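Tokens for chain A. Residues wanted.
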């Protein structure tokens, strides 16, 4: 993916969700984004209904989309598949930046 985001901003959004969000069965939710972490704190996750973002130790991150495998998507070319996933990721990044500004 062509995404380059500042990990500090991602972690800032994570902290805002964690401190200002509402606890649910699946994590803490704020503005349509849910955050979770593993018990040792070396891994956090931000997600919505289409995209999941893993933020790992050493400031590495990885995006996952609802449809990760182009072979499972019917009636889309590989280019359409990648463009669709990129659009979902860009919309998710925009949602995170809006949360960062709002809270």
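Reply:
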């Amino acid at each position: 993916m062509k995404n380059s985001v500042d990990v500090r901003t991602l972690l800032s959004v994570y902290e805002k969700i964690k401190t200002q969000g509402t606890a649910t069965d699946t994590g803490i939710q704020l503005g349509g984004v849910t955050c979770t972490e593993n018990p040792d704190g070396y891994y956090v996750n931000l997600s919505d209904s289409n995209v999941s973002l893993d933020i790992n130790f050493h400031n590495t991150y990885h995006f996952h989309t609802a449809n990760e495998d182009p072979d499972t998507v019917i009636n889309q070319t590989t280019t359409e598949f990648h463009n669709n996933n990129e659009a979902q990721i860009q919309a998710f990044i925009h949602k995170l930046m809006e949360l960062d500004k709002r809270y």
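Helices lie at 7-20, 78-102. The chain is about 40% helix and 30% strand.
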